[in-house]
Amino acid sequence: MIEKEIQVQTADGAMTTFVVHPDSEGPFPVALLYMDGIGYREQVKQNARRFAADGYYCVAPDLFYRSGAGLTFDMAKLAADGFKGPEAEQLMSAVASVTPERAVADTEAILAAVETDPAAAAGAKVSVGYCMGARVALRVASALPDEFVAAAGIHPGALATDQPDSPHHDLAGVRGELYFAFAESDQSATRESIDRFRDEMELRGIRGTVERLPGTAHGFAMADLPVYDRGAAELHFQRTLELWRRNLSPQPVAA
């Protein structure tokens, strides 16, 4: 595998971005990986490596760069403190800095930065996002439908609410296939909100799958979190790669 960190220049500064792809002959389809709210860290890179090993040029940006380079949070400590106090406030501020509009602009900057890399294939792209990154993946699929043919969202929060900025409104612009895997135990993503999101997809004729994984908690796909569920994590790799393969032609090059 070949991997590196690059600095992607945006209107708001330099965004550290992890790039990884097989060391065999490419080019490889570009896959964006959008991090969770814990931050840009080794586990994000590990997940990117797993996807890249299947024949992808995987790109994982530090979406919190506006709040500080390499900003990460200790979920165990946050939980012990009842998600209150200075660190919790810093987390909420960092998450709030990743607005839908900024996420799309950051993605466009990334695509411009990697398009000259001979290892990165031109044409259709795919994505996967975790937690808040799932919302980013949905927004990007909606805002850049000519670029992204498939997007996966893993343990997101509620994607269908009564708020005017509810993420489900982004479905109107989506033309690719979607896969969303919710945790069974998630205070924000209730069964009712998940069913509503699934119904909205069906109403708009969007191809895809929405499921709620039994016995899982929010964060199940990240091996560095206490709620990690190996079986569910492996399933998300399998389902996401199947999604990408179905929607990319020619098929990705095997590593």
Description of the molecule:
- The chain has 255 residues and is of the alpha/beta class.
- The chain is 34% helix and 24% strand.
- It is built from 7 helices and 8 strands.
- The chain has helices at residues 42-52, 75-80, 86-97, 100-114, 132-143, 191-203, 230-247; strands spanning 2-10, 13-21, 30-34, 57-61, 125-130, 148-154, 177-185, 208-217.
- It has an 8-stranded mixed β-sheet with strand order 1-2-4-3-5-6-7-8, with helices on both faces.
- The chain is globular.
- The N and C termini lie close together (9 Å).
- Residues 251-255 have low confidence and may be disordered.
Number of strands: 8
Strand-residue proportion: 15-25%
Helix content: 25-40%
Q: Strand order, biggest sheet?
A: 1-2-4-3-5-6-7-8
User: Which spans have pLDDT < 50 for at least 5 consecutive residues?
Assistant: 251-255
Largest sheet: 8 strands, mixed
The Cα radius of gyration reads 17 Å
Helix/strand/pairing category: alpha/beta
Q: Tell me the overall shape.
A: globular
In DSSP terms (H or I, runs of 4 or more residues), the helix count works out at: 7
Average pLDDT works out at 92
| First-residue to last-residue Cα separation | 9 Å
Order of helices and strands: EEEHEHHHEHEEHEH
Provide a compact summary of the structure.
With 255 residues, this protein is α/β, with parallel strands linked by helices. Helices cover 34% and strands 24% of the residues. The protein is built from seven helices and eight strands; from the N terminus they run βββαβαααβαββαβα.
